[in-house]
């Protein structure tokens, strides 16, 4: 992919190579593919090809998604659980219909306390329902954040809030990032999640950082978090 970004080889050739991995069972390979496709989607988000790349993601990830399913199988290892979370999150965010429907069903049961989501499925489910959700979805997620006993769960929610799509809800997430509900050291994760969530999120996050620069600089001056914030 770096060669494609540099214009040395065509993006089409890269996508053809990616298609050849549809039957690959290895987590590390899929993680690399996912990362590179994410970069490509970011580059194409300003073009007419944005929806095409979502279709491509759904096509490439759906066979492995169907093979893995939603529930652990006897004898599978830690990497299989990681792969399931990665694949379902990618499919859900890209709007794969069956994945979206199942994520919404499991999220509802989780919120109602009927069937609590396993730790490895929470991020992909949260990302999916937020990406295709509304103000009520965001309110439910913020409520889960407030009720969470473990800091790990609070951080998990903070990292995915930026998946929300509507401009007014993106603003709500950014305001939340600077609220007392979020530890100062975790604010950057929330803003970074918004910046990485969508083209609209990236623009909104950059404006938010500029508008609140004095407060952010005073919080993090001299520390690595300010450089991380600029990088994202």
Brief summary of the model shown:
Residues 4-231 form the ERAP1-like C-terminal domain. The chain has 14 helices and no strands.
Characterization of the model:
This protein has 232 residues and is mostly helical. It has a domain at 1-94. It contains 14 helices and no strands. The protein is globular and about 50 Å long.
Number of helices: 14
> Main β-sheet, in a few words?
none
**Strand pairing plus helix content: what structural class?**
mainly alpha
Shape: globular
What is the H/E order?
Answer: HHHHHHHHHHHHHH
Question: Approximately how much beta-strand content do the residues carry?
Answer: under 5%
Average the pLDDT over all residues and give the rounded result. Answer: 90
Total beta strands: 0
Termini separation comes to: 20 Å
* Helix proportion range: over 70%
* Low-pLDDT residue intervals, each spanning 5 or more residues: none
Organism: Hylia prasina (green hylia)
Family: Belongs to the peptidase M1 family.
Keywords: Aminopeptidase, Hydrolase, Protease
Protein name: PSA aminopeptidase
């Amino acid at each position: 992919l770096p060669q494609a970004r540099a214009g040395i080889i065509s993006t089409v050739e890269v996508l053809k190579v990616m298609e050849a991995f549809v039957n690959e069972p290895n987590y590390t390979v899929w993680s690399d593919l996912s990362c590179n496709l994410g970069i490509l989607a970011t580059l194409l988000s300003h073009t007419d090809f944005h929806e095409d790349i979502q279709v491509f993601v759904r096509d490439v990830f759906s066979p492995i998604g169907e093979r893995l399913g939603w529930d652990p199988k006897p004898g599978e290892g830690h990497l299989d659980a990681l792969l399931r979370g990665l694949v379902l999150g990618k499919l859900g965010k890209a709007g794969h219909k069956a994945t979206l429907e199942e994520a919404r069903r499991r999220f509802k049961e989780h919120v109602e306390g009927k069937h609590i989501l396993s730790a490895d499925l929470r991020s992909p489910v949260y990302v999916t329902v937020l990406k295709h959700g509304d103000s009520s979805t965001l309110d439910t997620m913020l409520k889960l954040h407030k009720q969470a006993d473990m800091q790990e769960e609070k951080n998990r929610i903070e990292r995915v809030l930026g998946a929300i799509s509507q401009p007014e809800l993106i603003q709500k997430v950014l305001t939340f990032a600077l609220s007392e509900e979020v530890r100062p050291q975790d604010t950057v994760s929330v803003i970074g999640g918004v910046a990485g969530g969508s083209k609209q999120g990236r623009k909104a996050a950059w404006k938010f950082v500029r508008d609140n620069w004095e407060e952010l600089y005073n919080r993090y001056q001299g520390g690595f978090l300010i450089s991380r914030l600029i990088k994202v």
